[in-house]
What we know:
By secondary structure, the protein is α+β, with helices and mostly antiparallel strands. It has helices at residues 5-32, 267-278, 280-291, 329-341, 358-374, 380-388, 412-429, 431-444, 452-463, 468-476; strands spanning 63-75, 80-91, 98-101, 106-112, 115-116, 118-122, 125-129, 139-148, 152-155, 159-165, 170-173, 193-202, 206-208, 212-219, 222-233, 240-243, 246-252, 255-261, 298-303, 320-321, 349-351, 448-450.
Amino acid sequence: MHRSVATDKLFRMVRKLALALALVASTSVVLAGTPANAWSPPGTPGATGAGDPYYPLDGNGGYDVKHYDLALKYAPATDVLAGAVTIRATATQRLSAFNLDLDGLTIRSITVDGRSAKWSRAGTELTVTPRASLSKGHTFDTRIVYDGVPKVIHDPYLGDGGAFTTDDGVIILGEPDVAQAWYPSNDHPSDKASFSIALTVPKDLQAISNGVPDGRRTSKGWTTWRWEQREPMATYLAMAAIGKFDVKSYEKNGIRFVDAIDPALPPETYARVAKSFAREPEMLRFLSGYFGPYPFRASGGIVDADGEWDYALENQSRPIYTPQDFANQEDGDSVVVHELTHQWYGDSVAVQNWRDIWLNEGFATYAEWLWSEHEGLGTVQQNFDRLYATPATASLWKAKVADPGAPNLFISAVYNRGAMTLQALRLNVGDKKFFSILRTWAQSQRNGNGSTEEFTALAERISGKDLSALFTTWLYTPSKPANPA
């Protein structure tokens, strides 16, 4: 076959163009088949703390937890807790690694989105390194399989929290550090999430946790109790009560009540506990009249006859009490009102940082005063006056209530002077605006967090007054204020 020179030149040009197009097509195939992470900028590790000035290593940065799924088995003979937690979270930055909080317990494996991940530990910080960086906005699942004997965390100032063994099981509760004693978490109130909790225990025991019961199943001598806490919850409010209880479960006014009382309590104490628990629906109606609708689908309470903790705690939807809380009927009713009030102030509206703790305890103490007035046991003003009569040299007047310092989170001044601050506010703005402030705070911050600065700004907005002097005096000045009455 014969071709002219011009034709030959054109042929060579066409052939070069075809080869170039083929190379481009080949490169496109390679690029399309390459993981996106390999061509993205490298990620950075999340912060090792949530930024709390009192507890700089509590919580972590770089992600936002959406849901915890706990599936745990407890063996009373050894106190070993074994199982897995799956944490669904969304990356808030491009993450090359992230931290979780865990104190003790043995890690068996960790996966991120189903792929094994590297991990290391330093103190209570568990660092997880996925195979590839997680892009900002990506929702990912971290599954940690672990086991061990959960510990009691000792604090010389705040008392103990963690897993307290009892004569027939275990009670897990505490504040502020407790979650890290029994499950890996982003352990700070600023990162709230929903929870699914499954506890497998010997079939002759009960296993109570937060929220609404979601069924139970018995197999081969073990029973799995399932609980769903759908509303967001701070990690320290998750609890477990395992043992032999008399359990009463019923629904009233759209709320599922689950009460658990240890049958080993002395008969007179048992009777007082049962009487106070029977008043829970009445108490919630009373409190709702001041604070607005109850924020959760479940309520109830737990009392165990045995244990080394010495406090009641507002575990979300299911507070835990001690037998000593029910030394008499009036005190028992009052402490139940206190912990139920926390369901609004402390649980639904959690603190932004731990220095804001008066927003929990001052409000719950004030509710006790409201209940006292309702029961004819002393008015709110009489309770205020009783405390105001305390000498100026007393410790009540030495605390900065809105910034007490980490060792002083639970001193009496945080409770009592916190409640007195609210009464001083009420006297300044009047009843109508005062209770509007309380209701609006509970509803506007529902399922979230709040700070002292946000609360004081809200009070000024609703009252239409400059309240800076009042709050400075009552919350930040370590001396006895002038009587506002």
